[in-house]
Amino acid sequence: MLLYHGRLIVLSVICQVIAVYSADHLLEGIYCGKKNCYEVLGISREATKNEIGRSYRQLAKKFHPDMHRSPDAKKEAEEKFKEIATAYEILRDDEERSDYDYMLDNPQEYYAHYYRYYRRRMAPKVDVRIVIAVTITVISVIQYYSAWSKYDTAIKYFMTVPKYRNRALEIAKAESKEAHAKGKATRKSKAEQKMEQDRVIRRVIEENLDIRGAYAKPQIVDILWIQLILLPYTISYYAYWYLRWFWKFTIMKLPYGEEEKLYIIRKYMKLGQHQFNALEDEERHQFLEEELWIKDNFKVWKQIKDEEAKKALAENNKYKQYRRYIKQHGVGRMTFDDS
Would the pTM count as exceeding 0.85? Predict the structure, then answer.
């Protein structure tokens, strides 16, 4: 019996030694290593923040490398200074000090201490909310300026289209004559006259041309930030819209209005709101006349349009050349000798 108890005692001691050795091995790379952070700063565990700061400043001044001249003393002071700085960084932060105190009181949980230490070190220092806000702001700015760039591209294109440019030139000439009549005109060089003419043409096109779709003039309400702010209203509006639709046209079986008819047609055509708005008013009116909100009518119309598109494509010279090439040579076949 005594021998049995003796073996148990020896085994327990061995396990404790192994645990302590393992803990020391893991603690080597975290906090103050094998040294006690409180002892490094020469303070007790009950020390206040003011006491921690005061002790750090005194020791940092004493062991600052610049206070020592000989290479050996300077090197020793650098090591000591690093220990003091590390201890101060740990103990001045309430959360990290709490983790460190827990480690001192529970040394056997060394894996948990290792995890806590590196989780805190690897955690992002910036508030996630700030990161999200900055990201949304950057996207909104890029989105807004991209929309303006597309709009500017559209305006420049229409300035080269004869129909719009000539009309704008007529308005520009009329304004020029009016300025001459009022005596406001000044002598300008040809380059200045050209710049003035382009400016007037652009203004006339911007004021009179209704550009729709993806190249429409950007609105501040279209950017991501505003859309997110308006999101609760948008969700509420669509919920109301769909409930109203279900009540009026599913339950009450009321006839569709023009807005509802165009909505159904757009869904059948698989077009977005901007794409559908970019269509000419006459074209949308034609959809209503052909009653394309009725699915059977839309299927017939779609089949006719597909046939017309295939016929137009078949009559295209480049398409004919491509079909002839595929028929003669096949897909991907070389047409020259490998001599």
Answer: no
